[in-house]
Write a structure and sequence with these properties.
- The protein is built from three helices and 20 strands.
- With 403 residues, the chain is mostly beta strands.
- The chain has one domain: Porin (Beta Barrel).
- It is found in: Cell outer membrane.
- It is a multi-pass membrane protein.
- Keywords: Cell outer membrane, Ion transport, Membrane, Porin, Signal, Transmembrane, Transmembrane beta strand, Transport.
- Homotrimer.
C-alpha cells in the first residue's frame, strides 16, 4: 500500500512549516523469481566450446526491485515544488543497485505548473518512456536487453547525472521533452555532455512516441569515461581512448506506437544506434578462430568494438483473457554492421509469457525467450552468453509485489 505522509520527517531534515505543506509518498516494488538458462559458456581444456545450463534465484527479471520517496508542495498559483528519490536493490542478495548509490535510480528536485515540469538531478531520459509504452520491455523486462544492442538503445533505462529535464504540459494528448546533461568540465561545455529530445502522443486506444539521445566523451579517469551519461560505459565506442573529450560517441533514436482494441493490444518499436567512434576490430568472421566474444566489447558483438551501426525491430501483442490474466508475446530482430568487415550480424528473439494478477499489488508471471545469433556472437538472454553457441533459451517464473 502506498502511504501518503504529511510529515517530511521521514527524510529527517525538514522544518515544521514544510511538514505541514508537503505531501510525501513512500513506495516500493519487489520482484524475484527462479530462472533457467540452457546454455552459458563454460569452456574447459577438454572442450573450449563447452556450455552448461544454470538455475538461479534472480531479482528484477521483469522490473528492478526498488524503494522510493516522492512528494509535492503546493506553492500557489498552480505551481508545485516536487522531489523524487529512488534506489534499486536485489531481492536475492540484498545488495544495492546502480553501483551501490543510495538513490541511484532517481534523484531529482523540480517545479511544475502551467509551464510544464522542470527537474534537476539524476534520472532516465525520455527514451525510457517510449520504450515502456511501445516495446517488449514492459512485458519481458531484462530478457530483451541483449537483442536490443546490449541495451545501448536505452530500452532497459539508462540514466544521466547533472541533468536538467523539461517536459511540456499535456496538450491534447501530446507532451514534448528536452533534456541536457552537463559534462561539468572546466573550459569545455561539450566534454561529457549529453542531449535528449522526445515527444509522445496518446489519444484513446492509439499512441505514438519518439525519442533521441546523444552522448559525448568525457575525460579519462581511471580508464572510465566520466560522461554525464551513465549508460555509455556499456559501449566500446564510448571508450575514451577511441576519441577525444567532447567527441560524440553514441547516437540513439527510438520510434514506437501501439493500438488497443477490445482485449487486444498491438505494439511495435524501432530503434537505431550509431557509434561514430567504433574502430576497426579485425575482419575474421565470428567463431572462425576464437570460441567466445565478450558482449559489449569484443568484435562482432552487440555494442562491441567494431559495431558502428545497429537497427532493432520489436513487435508484440498482449491479450487479456480476463481482468486478472494476460497472455503476451513478441518477436525481435536486431541487425548489425561492423567496421572493417562486410559481415552483417543478426539477432532474432521470440518471447512468450503469461501474467496473473492476484490483486492490484501482487502478480505472478512466467515467460520463455529463445535468442539466436547469425554471423556474430550472441550476448545471451540473461545470466551469461553462450560463447561459441549461437542459440540460448531462458525461462523464468517470478513474483512481483508493489507497496
Amino acid at each position: 500500500m502506498k502511504k501518503s505522509l504529511i510529515a517530511l520527517s521521514v527524510l529527517g531534515s525538514c522544518s515544521c512549516a514544510a511538514q505541514a505543506q508537503t505531501n510525501v509518498t513512500v513506495y516500493g516494488l519487489l520482484d524475484s523469481g527462479v530462472t533457467y538458462v540452457n546454455k552459458i559458456a563454460a569452456p574447459s581444456a577438454a572442450d573450449a566450446r563447452g556450455t552448461g545450463s544454470r538455475f538461479s534465484v534472480d531479482s528484477g527479471d521483469l522490473q528492478q526491485s526498488r524503494f522510493g520517496f516522492k512528494g509535492t508542495e503546493d506553492l500557489g498559483g498552480g505551481m508545485k515544488a516536487l522531489f523524487h528519490l529512488e534506489g534499486g536493490f536485489a531481492v536475492d542478495t540484498g545488495a544495492s543497485g546502480q553501483g551501490g548509490l543510495t538513490f541511484g535510480r532517481t534523484s531529482v528536485v523540480g517545479l511544475s505548473g502551467n509551464f510544464g515540469t522542470v527537474q534537476l538531478g539524476r534520472r532516465k531520459d525520455f527514451i525510457d518512456e517510449v520504450a515502456t509504452y511501445y516495446s517488449s520491455v514492459y512485458d519481458f523486462g531484462v530478457f530483451i536487453n541483449g537483442v536490443h544492442d546490449n541495451n545501448l538503445d536505452r530500452v532497459g533505462g539508462n540514466r544521466a547525472n547533472n541533468q536538467i529535464r523539461y517536459d511540456t504540459p499535456l496538450m491534447n494528448g501530446l507532451v514534448l521533452n528536452a533534456t541536457y546533461g552537463f559534462g561539468e568540465t572546466a573550459g569545455s561545455t561539450s566534454t561529457g555532455q549529453s542531449i535528449g529530445l522526445g515527444a509522445n502522443y496518446a489519444n484513446g486506444p492509439f499512441g505514438i512516441g519518439f525519442g533521441y539521445w546523444q552522448s559525448k566523451l568525457g575525460t579519462l579517469s581511471g580508464g572510465v569515461n566520466t560522461s554525464s551519461d551513465q549508460g555509455v560505459t556499456l559501449g566500446a565506442g564510448c571508450t575514451p581512448s577511441y576519441g577525444h573529450p567532447g567527441d560524440t560517441c553514441i547516437k540513439t533514436w527510438m520510434l514506437g506506437s501501439s493500438y488497443k482494441t477490445g482485449p487486444w493490444r498491438f505494439f511495435g518499436a524501432w530503434s537505431k544506434v550509431l557509434q561514430p567512434l567504433a574502430t576497426y576490430g579485425g575482419n575474421t568472421a565470428p567463431l572462425a578462430v576464437k570460441f567466445s566474444g565478450s558482449a559489449g566489447s569484443s568484435p562482432f558483438t552487440a555494442g562491441g568494438s567494431n559495431n558502428n551501426s545497429t537497427n532493432v525491430f520489436d513487435l508484440g501483442v498482449n491479450y487479456a483473457l480476463s481482468d486478472s490474466l494476460r497472455l503476451v508475446g513478441s518477436v525481435l530482430q536486431s541487425r548489425y554492421s561492423f567496421v572493417g568487415s562486410s559481415t552483417k550480424g543478426r539477432l532474432t528473439q521470440l518471447n512468450l509469457g503469461v501474467d496473473y494478477s492476484f490483486s492490484k499489488r501482487t502478480d505472478l508471471y512466467s515467460y520463455v525467450a529463445d535468442l539466436r545469433a547469425a554471423d556474430m556472437y550472441s550476448p545471451g538472454v540473461t545470466g551469461g552468453a553462450p560463447g561459441a553457441d549461437n542459440a540460448q533459451i531462458a525461462f523464468t517464473v517470478g513474483l512481483r509485489h508493489k507497496f
